[in-house]
Design goal:
Anaerobic Ribonucleotide-triphosphate Reductase Large Chain; RNR_lsu_N; nucleotide-binding; ATP-binding; EC 1.17.4.1; ribonucleoside-diphosphate reductase activity, thioredoxin disulfide as acceptor
Amino acid sequence: MTLKTLDSDKVTYYDLNNEINIPVDGQIPLQKDQEALTAFLKENVAENTMKFDSLQARFDYLIDNNYIETGFYNKYEFSFIEELYAYLAAQKFHFGTFMAAYKFYAQYALKTDNNAYYLENYIDRVSMNVLYFADGDTDLAMNLANEMIHQRYQPATPSFLNAGRKRRGELVSCFLIQITDDMNGIGRGINSALQLSRIGGGVGITLSNLRGAGAPIKGIEGAASGVLPVMKLLEDSFSYSNQLGQRQGAGVVYLDVFHPDIVAFLSAKKENADEKIRVKTLSLGVTVPDKFYELIKDNATMYLFDPYSVEREYGVPYSYVDITKEYDNMVANENIIKKTILARELETEISKLQQESGYPYIVNVDTANRANPIDGKIIMSNLCSEIMQVQTPSVINNEQGFDVMGTDISCNLGSTNIVNMMASPDFGRSVDSMVRALTFVTDSSDINVVPTIQKGNSLAHTIGLGAMGLHAYFAKNHMHYGSADSINFTSVYFMMLNYHSLKASNAIAQEKKETFHNFEKSTYATGTYFDKYINEDWGPDSDKVAALFDGIDIPNQEDWAALKADIQATGLYHQNRLAVAPNGSISYINDTTASLHPIINRIEERQEKKIGKIYYPAPYLSNDTIPYYTSAYDMDMRKVIDVYAAAQEHIDQSLSLTLFMRSTIPAGLYEWKNGRTDKMTTRDLNILRNYAYNKGIKSIYYIRTFTDDQEEVGANACESCVI
């Protein structure tokens, strides 16, 4: 049995929504979206929502039928739950668009086991999140209710979807693990990938430590098979471990650009690759030290170093060696096995694959480590390229146990809605509530099937608060994406997010009397992290931007100095606090634009399973805002990089930066195209990657290409962050 009218020919809302795409007298009939929303709520939601005589009866039903957990519920008096519901109802929440309501009920609302009825509306889902994350703290629950019902805060999909449910996946979004250069490490890594894919979320894995094809094994030259067979094993693992068929397991493998298998690694994703080596569903990422950019600039020959001999010489796995610093020593060291390639040839191979598939992701690993305030080394990222945290390696014995247990990473994400946050009555209190909600997730997470993940989480308490709706805010306030004012606004907003997340983390450290592991070795503890904020004014630099922050208390240099003193005295609870995921359907529910990137279309066309196309007008779209909604595909990507760089300045981790290109580039967009072909070439991507590197960008996610036959290359695969 299924919902009675979900796919019925009797409903009108699909047709009404589709009429948005049919101009009337040269105008977009936006009212049709509101008509579709009204029809959907009447014809679908009202028809299919289970009714209860009272709130108590509803909770009794959900508990008796094993739909929700009882642990969090029992931490509250029912009179408080009634008070919470009364507050939420009084806010008179309404979905702003048909897409928002459709996405919520199709993907997030709890349904009966036979899929016949909805068991919750938006207020119910918010209340589950609030009660679950507040963990019995009624004051925090009311604060969170305020943030979520006004859509200033949006937990990532795993948290928002699963909070309170009896039968659920994990609350965390994704995982990062490393494989060491031995059969025990490979076997343990594959098992970890299976386990993590089973419980949900994308898995990032670095293969940089594995010796290259042809390297010796126990003195036998040419014995090693390299990274490609391990990639195939991992791809099959993700395909097998797919949450009982509910989702395709998702993983990304990272390889250092100086690894001897780098060309074969890239070739495995090509459409014409031999089936024995081709990976179809596994994502690829490349970690790129500064030295690569230097060699490209000099048009030099570059050396590729075998991890087996590097580890023997340096006593640590390959990923933990500073390639840029040690490059010349490694070239001169006769004990290190190496081969050569022209740096620009490899650069072109990367761009060719990005044109064809959108891969590989790029992690500027030295850029990330220069900005890293934490003791230790960042060696990789995740499936969406925004998580950057230090790891330590393990030593695994023949019994698959740990002689030395290292640390790996789980990601716990949420987003601020920029438009609504700028209307918050108290920006700092809003951020404090969000940090506390995310803290509950990290404190309650216990991924014991992968002990290195469990250990890393228990030591670091990391979270990733980000943002969505930047382009919507620009358009609403008549700023062109990439303009000087838009860049300055972005900088001020994320400076404030940084300040208040630090303040919240410090408050939690004081309350719990606990700091993250090795806090005393961080630049937070030494105080140098705060120098740039104390020595420079990061406030608005134009009347336009100053007016946008009118009434909002912007931290000044004295505020930063006081915060520095507090943190040096009492520490921080969270090793990492900020990261910007790509998000997607979550942004639709919030009636805003996804992440920080520009929109693709003013009227977005979404292909939905079974029902066909749904159209989504850009938030706040009107004759007044249309000039400020330029498609990403028609925008100079340097503007996007500039905006992301302004945010990156204040974010301790990274941002999922997607670059949008057309196969045929609009005339006048890039000055280096003048007098050359208007087709996108590898040179265009080379120039943009180098521009991003020089702007301090830590990572580049997909390269999305809009082809001349109206297709998109480089679709997003990370459901945990994107949906």
